[in-house]
C-alpha cells in the first residue's frame, strides 16, 4: 500500500462525517498494534510522533514506521504531533513525514500567525500538509484546576487565522485537555465547535481526545472534527498492564510474555476508538480508484535534498 497524506484522509473524512484516529506511537509495539487493528477493521489511520517520543526513539523509528506503513493494506499517514518550533518541523521534513503540526498557540495571535505562516510556506513548497492550533487545549497540570488552562477558540479569530496562514487543518479548543481528566471535567462545547465549523469549512482536529464521553465525540465528528488525537487512552492501560504482569510473574523476562497482556489491552482500546470514530471499513473508499489517490505529498512539492 502506498503511503497517503493526512490531508487526503481528512478531506474525505470531513466531507463524509467520520474521523481518522491519530494515535501516538510511543514505541515500536505501538506501531504494530495500531497497524494490526487498522488492518483488521479496514480503517485508514494516522500514526503520529510527539517531539519527546521522537527524541526518545530517534529518527530510525520514522524509517520503521514508514516501512511498516508501506507493506500495510490500509491507507496510513505519518504525522509530526505538536512540533514546538521550526527545528522540529525541519527534522520531520528531513525524515519524510508527510504532514506536520506546528504548535505556537501559546504565543499571541500575531506571533502564532507569523510562525505558522513560515512553516506553511516551507512545507507546502516541499509538498507537506500542515496542522496548527488556535486557542489552548489545556492540560491536567495547569495551575487553575477549574479551567486547566483552556482558552476556547474564537470562530472569528479562527477564520482570520486560516485566511492568513493557509493551514490545511486546525486544532481547536472546545473543552478538552491533554492527559487524563480529573473527575467531572469533561465539558466539550459543541456550540462553539458548530460556530467554528460554519466559519472555516475545513477539517478540524480534536486534541485531548482521551477520556471523553462517546456521545460527545460522535457529536464533535458530526460538526467538523475529522481527526481525533489519542495518546493517554492507549498509554496508561498499556504500561499498567506491564506493571501488573511484572508483579504477577516476577521471575519472567521474555518480551512475548511480559508484553502479551499489554498489547492485547491496547489493541482492544484501538478497536473501540476506531469503531467510535466511524472510520472502520473506509479503507476501500480510498483505495477503489488509484487514479484519484493523492500522493504521499499532497502538494506539487519541490525536489529538495536535505543535508
Mean pLDDT across the residues is 88
Order of helices and strands: HEHEHHEHEHEHEHEHEHHHH
- Inertia-based shape: globular
Give the helix/strand class: alpha/beta
What count of domains describes the coordinates?
1
Active site: 81
Binding site for Zn(2+) 1: 82, 178, 207
GO molecular function, one term: aldehyde-lyase activity
Pfam families: F_bP_aldolase (PF01116)
How would you explain this protein's 3D organization?
The structure is a single chain. 47% of the residues lie in helices and 13% in strands. The model is unreliable at 303-307 (pLDDT under 50). Helix 5 links the parallel strand 3 and strand 4 (99-102). The chain has helices at residues 6-16, 28-41, 51-57, 60-70, 86-94, 109-126, 155-165, 190-200, 214-222, 232-248, 255-258, 260-277, 283-287, and strands spanning 20-24, 45-49, 76-83, 99-102, 129-134, 169-172, 204-206, 225-230. It has a single domain, classed as TIM Barrel, CATH 3.20.20. It starts with 5 loop residues before the first helix and ends in a 20-residue tail after the last helix. It has 307 residues and is of the alpha/beta class. Strands 1-2-3-4-5-6-7-8 form an eight-stranded parallel β-barrel, surrounded by eleven helices.
Amino acid at each position: 500500500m502506498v503511503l497517503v497524506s493526512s490531508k487526503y484522509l481528512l478531506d474525505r473524512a470531513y466531507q463524509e462525517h467520520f474521523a481518522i484516529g491519530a494515535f501516538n506511537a510511543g514505541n515500536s509495539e505501538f506501531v504494530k498494534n495500531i497497524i494490526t487493528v487498522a488492518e483488521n477493521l479496514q480503517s485508514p489511520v494516522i500514526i503520529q510522533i510527539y517531539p519527546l517520543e521522537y527524541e526518545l526513539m530517534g529518527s530510525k523509528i520514522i524509517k520503521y514506521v514508514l516501512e511498516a506503513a508501506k507493506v500495510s493494506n490500509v491507507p496510513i499517514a505519518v504525522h509530526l504531533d505538536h512540533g514546538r518550533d521550526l527545528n522540529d518541523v525541519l527534522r520531520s521534513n528531513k525524515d519524510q513525514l508527510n504532514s506536520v503540526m506546528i504548535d505556537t498557540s501559546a504565543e499571541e495571535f500575531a506571533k502564532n500567525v507569523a510562525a505558522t505562516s513560515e512553516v506553511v510556506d516551507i512545507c507546502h513548497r516541499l509538498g507537506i500538509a500542515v496542522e496548527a492550533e488556535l486557542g489552548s487545549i489545556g492540560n491536567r497540570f495547569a495551575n487553575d484546576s477549574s479551567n486547566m488552562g483552556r482558552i476556547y477558540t474564537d470562530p472569528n479569530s479562527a477564520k482570520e487565522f486560516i485566511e492568513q496562514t493557509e493551514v490545511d487543518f486546525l486544532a481547536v479548543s472546545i473543552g478538552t485537555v491533554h492527559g487524563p481528566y480529573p473527575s467531572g471535567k469533561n465539558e466539550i462545547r459543541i456550540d462553539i465547535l458548530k460556530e467554528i465549523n460554519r466559519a472555516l469549512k475545513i477539517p478540524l482536529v480534536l486534541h485531548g481526545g482521551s477520556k471523553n464521553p462517546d456521545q460527545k465525540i460522535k457529536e464533535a465528528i458530526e460538526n467538523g472534527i475529522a481527526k481525533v488525537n489519542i495518546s493517554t487512552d492507549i498509554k496508561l492501560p498499556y504500561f499498567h498492564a506491564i506493571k501488573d504482569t511484572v508483579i504477577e510473574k516476577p521471575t519472567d523476562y521474555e518480551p512475548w510474555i511480559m508484553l502479551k497482556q499489554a498489547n492485547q489491552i491496547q489493541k482492544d482500546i484501538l478497536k473501540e476508538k476506531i469503531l467510535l470514530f466511524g472510520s472502520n471499513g473506509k479503507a476501500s473508499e480510498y483505495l477503489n480508484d488509484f487514479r484519484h489517490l493523492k500522493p504521499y505529498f499532497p502538494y506539487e512539492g519541490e525536489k529538495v535534498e536535505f543535508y
